[in-house]
Amino acid sequence: MVNPFLLGMKSCRTSVFAVLSVIIIINGLSTFVVQAGVESKVHIVYLGEKQHDDPEFVTESHHRMLWSLLGSKEDAHNSMVHSYRHGFSGFAAKLTKPQAKKIADLPEVVHVTPDSFYELETTRTWDYLGLSVANPKNLLNDTNMGEEVIIGVVDSGVWPESEVFNDNGIGPVPSHWKGGCESGENFTSSHCNKKLIGAKYFINGFLATHERFNSTESLDFISPRDHSGHGTHVATIAGGSPLPNISYKGLAGGTVRGGALRARIAMYKACWYLDNLDITTCSSADLLKAMDEAMHDGVDVLSLSIGYRLPYFSETDARAVIATGAFHAVLKGITVVCSGGNSGPAAQTVGNTAPWILTVAATTLDRSFPTPITLGNNKVILGQAMYTGPELGFTNLVYPENPGNSNESFFGDCELLFFNSNRTMAGKVVLCFTTSKRYTTVSNAVSYVKEAGGLGVIVARNPGDNLSPCEDDFPCVAVDYELGTDILFYIRSTGSPVVKIQPSKTLVGQPVGTKVADFSSRGPNSIEPAILKPDIAAPGVSILAATSTNKTFNDRGFIMASGTSMAAPVISGVVALLKALHRDWSPAAIRSAIVTTAWRTDPFGEHIFAEGSPRKLADPFDYGGGLVNPEKASKPGLVYDLGLEDYVLYMCSVGYNETSISQLVGKGTICSNPKPSVLDFNLPSITIPNLKEEVTITRTLTNVGPVESVYKVVIEPPIGVQVTVTPETLVFNSTTKRVSFKVRVSTKHKINTGYFFGSLTWSDSLHNVTIPLSVRTQLLQNYYDEN
């Protein structure tokens, strides 16, 4: 999107003067000698909006700045890790703390921050969301399945041999593509085609921090090739080509494909496997470089299934590199989609909360894997598993506990099974209980039982915990605590308890209900509570997609995985289709269309619950606007749009200083006094975290539907809150395309409350443009603020 508020780039002469000025200032500083033993670490030097269109010139200015600081051209070259020269200006370099402080004091520098590390977060999906290929009249076919759109994925790389990257029937590469494929270990440009049109890798930041990393011994590939399989999986979900007859050993069978199945994929590998820790990690310096390159290459959508651990950095913090890169991408018309994190169901855990990012929560599908457990008393209990092995006939069943007449110790906790003697578990199915949410708890319990000669495991646990297949197709079935207690009481009631376990089945559609996943991070936003996060929810539980072949449970290279990592690319695929249909829509307009048309029930009209303890009806802090509804999002009627001026007002409202804002956006900025209210930021939601008596909020709607339209307001007020909208009718025509309205919110509560939820809808009988209302009365806090 070309933004009319941006000032034109400075002339070459002005840029040269700026560079020379930096050199003079740095040379004027006292000579700095690096003492032996002072440690250099990677630091990101962020300079804001770039001041020249020539990337080579921008990079040269970065080298000159380093050269003047370090004293020689060679030292500057050796220190440089990355030059950010496309979407914005800055660089990553190895600096000591004193050097970082010296360069941070320069007026041209917005901020300097040490490198930090981020983590990765991971068939039926598209039919469930109403995007069936078989339907000739839907968003898929209206957009030629996203063929002219490019989805950039920043992740762990790509497995190019996967069948999901075939380019059968796909036309020429879009003309706006400027990227390419980078060769490296076991990867050449020939691995790319008209589907996988780009693949690059960024490792300098990672190597500068992990100096002992041995590239020859590492299992990872020093190239765009994927080791962990995470990047391949999320790329498949967003835009993979269709492949029929894919299943996990007969479960969840069908056609695997991406949302925008003809969209092009560009992979930017910035996450690397650490063999000694068995984790994949992403340097912030490398992430920022990947995003910078993606902006240059011409991607239309950026998808990042990557997050940081609590506590999070605000978008004005120098360490929030995803927020920084996303800001520049959004100003260039690129929608940035991020996972919300896997720290649920605790409140205030959602990440990637910058208001220009589209943040995604994870739900289940309308699919389950019931697994019959038959007890010796002929009672049948349905557990959940992904067991596809042979039926385990009636077998001895045990819960390891002291019967009261033994000196031996017994342990029925799943985490402690290894303390039991082998004879306790050998030849038996073992029941255990756990309160842990870690997947390793189940996998370790299975290992303990297998090593002891056991034949199966029944794990009683929180019903919302994630379901994963057990290795070697060992019988391991999950039940909730109630069912686990029923099994335990049966064991205690008989001298010879036995059990039969049958293979799992796939159940699709009703009566399986949709739920917000237990692991999905929840709001409210811990950085700025007035900004609703997450924005939207999408399926992210047991999603079948491609992976690298060394990680597969399927000889064709497919696995099931769960996480907001899997939900984010679902939204990226939807965004790609919307971008194909509405090339002129801004990222904010696309976000608004998705949020305001979302399902607040499942596609069958049933309530969506949120897993947790206890399970409850889902609210905006669980799923934002609701469950994504792609068809409705393509024709929203009205949108809550945002541009550069809106983002500047937001940064002023949360206290970003004027100098930093000016450098960030490339134009002089003066914040108003008094500063604007963050509540007036034109989001497709209203969240009031500290309502004392009443407040009036402004929103503006832009008509993207029929030119002559009349909308009337429908209000569902939160409990104990009065909501009044003025005017109650909005009239759009050929001369009036944008209309503002005011929302007066007042509380009837006399005490501090938690959040109550409602909604505000504008309807013309064809379109229902709905935003969530979230209001908390905080009388006591306001009392202390005033006194």
Automatic annotation (TrEMBL):
Domain Inhibitor I9: 42-120
Annotated keywords: Glycoprotein, Hydrolase, Protease, Serine protease, Signal
This protein's record includes keyword Magnesium: no
Domain called Peptidase S8/S53: residue spans: 146-601
Domain Subtilisin-like protease fibronectin type-III: 680-775
Active site: 155, 230, 565
GO molecular function: serine-type endopeptidase activity
Pfam family, one: Inhibitor_I9
Residues covered by the PA domain: 397-487
Family matches, as CDD domains: PA_subtilisin_like, Peptidases_S8_3
Matching InterPro entries: PA_domain (IPR003137), Peptidase_S8/S53_dom (IPR000209), Peptidase_S8/S53_dom_sf (IPR036852), Peptidase_S8_Ser-AS (IPR023828), Peptidase_S8_subtilisin-rel (IPR015500), Peptidases_S8_3 (IPR034197), S8pro/Inhibitor_I9 (IPR010259), S8pro/Inhibitor_I9_sf (IPR037045)
A GO BP annotation: proteolysis
Gene3D superfamilies registered for this protein in UniProt: 2.60.40.2310, 3.50.30.30, Peptidase S8 propeptide/proteinase inhibitor I9 (3.30.70.80), Peptidase S8/S53 domain (3.40.50.200)
Family: Belongs to the peptidase S8 family.
UniProt cross-references to PANTHER family, sorted A to Z: PROPROTEIN CONVERTASE SUBTILISIN/KEXIN
Name of the protein this chain belongs to: Subtilase family protein
Organism the protein comes from: Arabidopsis arenosa
